[in-house]
Amino acid sequence: MCASGTHIADYIDRNMAGKRVAIIGAGSSGLTSIKCCLEEGLQPVCYEMSDDIGGLWYYREETPAGGDRLNASVYKSCSINTSKEMMSFSDFPIPVSFPPFMPHNKVLEYFKMYATHFNLLKYIKFKCKVVEVTPTDNHLETGQWKVSTVCLGEQGEDDSEVTSEVFDGVMVCSGHHRFPHKPAFEGMSRFKGRVLHSSEYKKQSTFEDKKVLVIGMGNSAADIATDASYVAKQVDISTRRGSWIFSRFFPGGLPADFLANTRFMMGIPNKILEWMVELMVNFKYSGENYGLQAFHRGLEAHPTIHDYITIRIMSGYIRVRPSITHFTSDGAVFDDGHFEKFDTVVMATGYEYKFPFLDDKIIYNGSDSINTYKFTFLPHLQRPESLAFIGLVQAIGAVMPIAELQARWFARVISGKAQLPPTARMYDYIETRWQEVNETYVKTKRHDNLETFWVPVMDDIASEIGVKPNMVSLLKEEPLFAVRCFFGPCVPAQYRLHGPHSKPVQAKRMIENTFSNITRSTQYRKVEAVMKKREVTWSQRLVSIKVLLYTLTFVFLAFLLAHMHLI
Fold it and tell me: Which residues cross the membrane (predicted)?
């Protein structure tokens, strides 16, 4: 029997008149989907392959072999790259005591608090695998889907016969970090050392006294190379195009996403914004001096966010290499002709977009990419409102708040309280998205139409359900608060100020506490006495601020003039 605690018939309220919705996956996207369905009077049933919630954030020591990657999870040293205020759900603040950038155990703890607070666990069937989702024979009339599942044994093996149920809607919340992408390299089959994908990595001891090659320069590659550099004999990292390495922190110690993801910043022309981020990166170090220099501009590819890899490179523990031409039995040859011996290779080369329970015709419709309307609905379906992808987006920011808005939107649509636009308009949106992608990003497998900036996609989806903040109205009613919302970080609580299921009092409090929740979480040492000894007057502070502003203004204007070839 599946480990659900209670049978579905026991925990679904039979008095509910709402439609039944199947939710695939109980990670962050699945949890918020359950909650949003309940808010709209729907009957959610969530299927989760593992024995607990959290998805990738449910850390486990071992990852058993097999294409389904049942127990795939983060590695032991993993911390989230977005600040806690920018990754929280809109109506459930992360505790003040949690650190600004939470390690995986704190992320999971937050998800469990969320699930407990909103009583979500009883709607989840654990150790239950969805094997097939197909439209019913009368799908065109009803929009219904047949969902087939199988219970799993202790080792992840199928432990029961396939059973099927009919649902009015399906929310795909299984994520896109399940199936490793492993590019083929010449001679790889001859290499006698160990080869693993980043999804299999768990802890530093894997690399004890090894000569390690990490392929890739994304977040996982930087994390793993840095981890390995503390215990391995030597670590090399191979990159084809280089990378812009962004810090989690802005000068002064506040999270960088407080500055990056604001409405004000999103109003700055992209080319100027690109110059600003490049200036910030180069102010800290020159990528050219350390082999990191990217072949693209600062916002033309998904950024690498890391605070430690550069110092490990400068200390000689990590060496940056060009791309690989081929492997030998005991090492690799790089583009520059250099040969190096290795006994362990880590392929931090990303993941494939795969949903084995759905037919490719349903997902792709003959295309090479997943063409969704606002990252959520498939307009080519006969009943596009009946199936949604939740969290299938590559944004420069946390996916949790985006998934929450997607779930709110789907729940409104499937319950009949909102409608999708005509199919032609959805296709127009997709065509425009492709134009933006082609104009903005370098052409790679990763940069398809799922790549986007954070605030625009949040606002785009929020506008569909009437919860996008009205800055003009806010400015008239509460000018100072409006300024905070426009120039300050666009925290998820902004999407609870008005509209369906708004919680304006709580939302305003969360927005106003954004900065203090970050600074208070790390203040274990009281510094009042120390500050009194070297107290700086307000006049001195104002002078310093003026000097800084004048300097930045001069640099900015000089750049603009130089860029326009006027000097």
Answer: 386-403, 547-566
Measure the CA–CA gap between 407 and 397, rounded to whole angstroms.
Answer: 18
**pLDDT the model gives residue 558:** 56
Neighbours of 29 (CB within 10 A): 27
Within 168-317, strands assigned E span 169-172, 179-180, 194-197, 211-215, 234-238, 245-246, 304-305
Beta strand pairing status for 331-334 and 339-341? Answer: antiparallel
d(CA 131, CA 158): 10
C-beta separation of 456 from 429 below 8 A: no
* 520 contacts: CB under 8 Å, gap ≥ 6: 96
Predicted local distance difference test score (pLDDT) of residue 7: 37
Q: Residue 89 in 3-state DSSP? A: strand
| pLDDT score recorded for residue 532 | 55
Instruction: Tell me what pLDDT residue 534 has.
Output: 57
Average pLDDT over residues 212-227: 96
Whether the per-residue pLDDT at 285 is higher than 50: the answer is yes
Triad 107, 52, 202: Cα angle to 5°: 60
Tokens representing 260 are 């990056």
Contact at 8 Å (CB) between 37 and 411? yes
Distance in angstroms (rounded) separating the CA atoms of residues 493 and 503? 9
Percent of the chain predicted with pLDDT > 70: 87
3-state secondary structure of 190: helix
| Residue labelled with tokens 């409405």 | 263
pTM of the entire predicted model: 0.89
Amino acid at 511: I
Query: In 3-state terms, the chain is what percent helix, strand and coil (to 5)?
Result: 40, 15, 45
Token match 């996982």: residue? 220
Sheet holding 43-48, edge to edge: 124-126, 43-48, 20-24, 169-172, 387-389
Cα separation of 471 and 263, whole Å?
A: 10
φ and ψ at residue 179, rounded to 5 degrees: -115, 105
